[in-house]
Amino acid sequence: MLDKIKRFFNSMDPLFWVFIGILIVERVLNGTEDLGEAIISRILMLPGIVIGISLHEAGHAYTSYWLGDPTPKAQGRLSLNPLRHIDPMGFLFLLIAGFGWGRPVEINPVFYKSKRRDEFIVSIAGVTVNLVVAIIFSFIAKGIAATYQSGASDAIYYLYMICVYVVYMNILLMVFNLIPCPPLDGWGIVTQLFNLKKYDWWLPVYRRGSLILMVIIIFGLTGRIISPIVSALMNILM
């Protein structure tokens, strides 16, 4: 087990650790929670993170498979098992920075009947699943709140907060993944909507997508983009 952990840390690009360091420092300097509150909130977030990432990636996998692509099944991605879908880096980002991603599902569009249409459907499947999950858990949270009485056990309160965090994390994953920057789903969506692959600049941008995404995260552009949208959707659902 220790060897597996060592191999994981050694396999990470040094740039990743620099990036994580920057995010941790930023959180420490600008965070408003005390340490105890931060630990409790992160614990309560875990079910939402696991559910959100797992169902998001499973949505991509099952949709591609239903459209005729055997690749997700061959790679063991037709599963709700979180271990099949969680990306360690994306998981850490969700805990530390408030946004993240899962392990991308590989697809082979050659099996699709209508390549552009079906790639669009697969791209939008993950965020659609996140929205559906958020709506379902918002009703569960409201049901708990409606029956909650003062003096009830702390377990009921924590159950309510877990449901709220499931709503929040799924909305967060949905909005973050809709940013039109590779490797996020938003890039695949706009690519198919506007047939961007016909342009010479598409491939160079796609290949440098992860670096571009890191830059806009470091400079806080993602927060400025997604925070108002997430807040508005939370107000609607909760």
Description:
The structure is a single chain. This protein is mostly helical and 238 residues long. The protein has eleven helices and no strands. The protein has helices spanning 2-11, 14-30, 35-66, 71-74, 88-96, 115-147, 154-177, 185-193, 202-207, 209-218, 221-237. Helix 3 (35-66) crosses helix 6, helix 6 runs antiparallel to helix 7 (154-177) and helix 6 (115-147) crosses helix 8 (185-193). The longest helix has 33 residues, at 115-147. The radius of gyration is 19 Å and the shape is globular.
Fill in the keyword field for this structure:
238 residues
Q: DSSP helix count?
A: 11
For the largest beta-sheet, the strand count, sense and barrel status come to: none
Secondary-structure content class: mainly alpha
Q: What fraction strand?
A: under 5%
The stretches of 5 or more residues where confidence is low (pLDDT under 50) are none
Summarize the helices and strands and which ones pair or pack:
Elements: H1 2-11, H2 14-30, H3 35-66, H4 71-74, H5 88-96, H6 115-147, H7 154-177, H8 185-193, H9 202-207, H10 209-218, H11 221-237
